Target: Glycerate kinase
Amino acid sequence: MVSPLDAVPSPKIVVAPDSFKSTATAAEAAEWLAEGVRSVIRDAHIVLTPMADGGEGTSSLFEGERICLPTTTAAGRLTEAEYTFHAPSKTAYIDVAAASGLPAVDEPVPLTGDTYGTGVLIADAQTRGAERIVLGLGGTATIDGGTGILVALGVNPLDQAGYQLKPGGGALEQLAHFDTAKVNVPAGAVEWVLLTDTTAPATGPQGAAHVFGPQKGATRDNVEVLDRGLARLCEVADVDPATPGLGAAGGVGIGITWLSTMLHGDSSHVHILPGARVVADSNGLAEQVADAALAITGEGRFDGQTGTGKVASVVGELAREADSVFAVAAGRFDEQPDEGTIAVTLSETDSVREQLTQAGAEIAVAYLNTSTVQG
Model:
């Protein structure tokens, strides 16, 4: 049991974790980490700033009405999904993971999974008055290049013989052209803001299929099929596959970019942005960290993808800019963070709350020891 210490009077501590997949929301993670910190540094001034990077939980961090409606999962099964609609700004915040995410499918569907269910949410948002769609790209079970969204918005991908392709990225190699006779013009013509949690391009060794395919259940052969399919989609859509961030969410940005360009004549209505930075700007994280003694973040796994736009990398950058101590709590560390970072691996207890509370306490003790050493 850690005993309370009072070596540093009333330090300001910012707690800004990502969600821990399906086990803790970002808000819960922040609260529980702070609970652990406060058990050690009782007089700390703690600011909770839940974060997201475009993945699961991003839309819930924005202001507006939470809309829930029936839709389909990546496997085509009926489900319910939520998004946020902010009427004053005519903006809808939608996570692709809400309908098309990995947790919603019982078995991996790398070749056949599609984003149709996300398209249903997009169409619904437009009917409520949304003129801007902020789409969080991350945590999907799909590698369909956004073609499921296109189908939901009235665009049908066809093969050379004129037959509609089967759902999913596994059929994209056969793509010849799109049937746009029934396209939902109002929905497709909105302003698109695509929040990415990666800088990965659409295709190639660092692309959507090779990097994220195995996480979604793709075998080595599946990966090659999917990569060729995305390359074909980019060719037909006249989209540059090397565009940074286009590999997010199984290439969703490819279909969105094609649709918007087809309707407007150029891609000026599509904005691909780093999700964690956008959320940080929205919730004032930079301002909070600027005068903080300690900035704490957390995520399920700290690995090679962390530095490509994940929450931990952004919080770390802000902490370094502010000369604040930086700490990370993670379920596992596949890579070591930068020197000087306080890194705490979550314990193996069954309770996520207990894991995060313990991690917060460990971080607080390590911070106090660091502060004492530095004087």
About this structure: The chain has twelve helices and 13 strands. Residues 352-374 form the longest helix (23 residues). The radius of gyration is 21 Å.
